[in-house]
Amino acid sequence: MTEVTRIISIDDHVQETPDLWTSRLSSRFGNRAPRLVSEGGRDVWVVDGQELLGGRVCAAGGFLSDRTAHPDKWDAVPTAAYAPADRLKAMDAGGIDRSMLFPTVGGFAGEAFGTLNDPDLELACVQAYNDWLIEEWAGASERFVPQCMVPIGPPDVTVAEIERAVGMGHRGVIFPSMPMLLRDAPHLADHDYDPVWDVCEKLDVPVCMHSGATPRLHYAGYSGLPPTLLEAIEAVEKPVSSVFIMSVLSFSKLLLRHPRLRVVLAESALSWGLLALEWADHQFEHDGLPNEGYDLKPSEMFRRQCYFSTWFDTVAPFTPFVGVDNIMWSANLPLPTTTWPRIRHSIDQTMSGLSDEDRRKVLSENAAALYKLDD
Fold first, then answer.
1. Residue 369 Cα to chain centre, angstroms
2. E-strand spans in the chain?
3. pLDDT for 366 beyond 90
4. What is the pTM of this model?
5. Which of 41, 95, 228, 234 is most exposed by smallest CB count within 10 Å?
């Protein structure tokens, strides 16, 4: 197997530190600011009286000897989850050159703050995170590629934060895919959000929608199952939940209105996507949508503007329909589903059957072009 010298992970997560928001938010927010509190012998993240992260202190099972374990206290959280220097060592161990960063406590797509009904608190939480990510992670190494969280509204506030954050160095915009399921907000496809997509086109930054960011789309699970099996169900469901995003993108004309917008479906996987695109194309023709002002089929819109991510799929079977230029690789650090530390072995398995050129595209070139990492 030909050695791949460069690997870019387009979906990794930072574990926010206990002082991130308490040290940066105005004192007027008091105990409403995101913080760790001790409850019943365990540390729990809360914001404005709501538990965050499902009551866990971290999501870093990939760095634990038992990936299904959950530390109860902050002192037990692996340092590679929250310390840039130690994360770089983990990246070196896996051969990862660059890493696109997503949040954890703030929600994998920033959705935790989208549930807040106080727009001032939401904006303050988002801005504190965006500043911290630039200072503590991007400032530590150019190998970390920062992506900003944004408030889900009002749209003019969202636009202003995108402009501010990209001006600081953020290279992607993280956005919850179903804002209308978080609070009273416009539907993702409504024209209300057109200014948001306009500014992303103007600044040439991708919009990144992470799977699993809308709990209401997920099966709650049978309470009698052991926790490890419930987590396994969640891990299987999370990528497939992106089918709802694909349906909106396929039929809402959002992509047609914004032809230069680029959308990354992080932690999406590939297999369900092939089915979703084939089915969307079938319905497109079956229901006569070419006569309803659609210039492109769903699969054509996808190939022009969207990207799936892969980390465990065998890639070759999906490239003829999905398109090799629309697939990017991720390590999923430090989540329990990561292929770390056996990343090279996993790549050899999942990239089997691809040409050297296509391997390079999936593992680095597509991401480098999208995020302009060579400029």
1. 18
2. 8-13, 35-39, 42-47, 50-51, 98-102, 144-145, 148-149, 173-174, 207-210, 263-266, 306-310, 327-329
3. yes
4. 0.94
5. 41
Q: What is the pLDDT of residue 1?
A: 43
Question: Reduced to 3 states, what is the DSSP secondary structure of residue 21?
Answer: helix
Distances (CA, A) of 65 to 29, 191, 336, 345, 358: 38, 47, 10, 19, 34
Work out the widest C-alpha separation in the chain, in whole angstroms.
62
d(CA 143, CA 137): 9
The encoded tokens of residue 206 equal 């991708």
pLDDT tens sequence across 55-78: 999 999 999 998 888 899 999 999
Prior bond to 341 cis, omega within 30?
yes
- Output the six-digit token pair for 253: 């004309």
- pLDDT exceeding 70 applies to what percent of the chain? 95
CA distance 212 to 234: 9
Do residues 144 and 96 touch, judged by C-beta distance below 8 A? no
Give CA–CA dist 114/182, Å, rounded: 6
Contacts (Cβ under 8 Å, ≥6 apart) of 144: 84, 87, 98, 99, 101, 137, 138
DSSP for 111-153, written as a single string: HHHHT-S-HHHHHHHHHHHHHHIIIIIITT-TTEE--EE----
pLDDT in tens, 17-49: 999 999 999 999 999 999 999 988 999 999 999
Helix (H, G, I), strand (E, B) or coil at 252: coil
pLDDT surpassing 80 at residue 234 = no
pLDDT of residue 149: 98
Edge-first strand listing for the sheet containing 144-145: 8-13, 98-102, 144-145
Helix 243-251 / helix 271-286 crossing angle, nearest 10 deg: 30
**Are 327 and 362 contacting, i.e. CB atoms less than 8 angstroms apart?**
yes
Q: Can you tell me the distance from the alpha carbon of 351 to that of 341, in angstroms, rounded to the nearest whole number?
A: 17
Beta strand 327-329 pairing with 8-13 = unpaired
pLDDT at 336 over 80: yes
210-231 mean pLDDT: 72
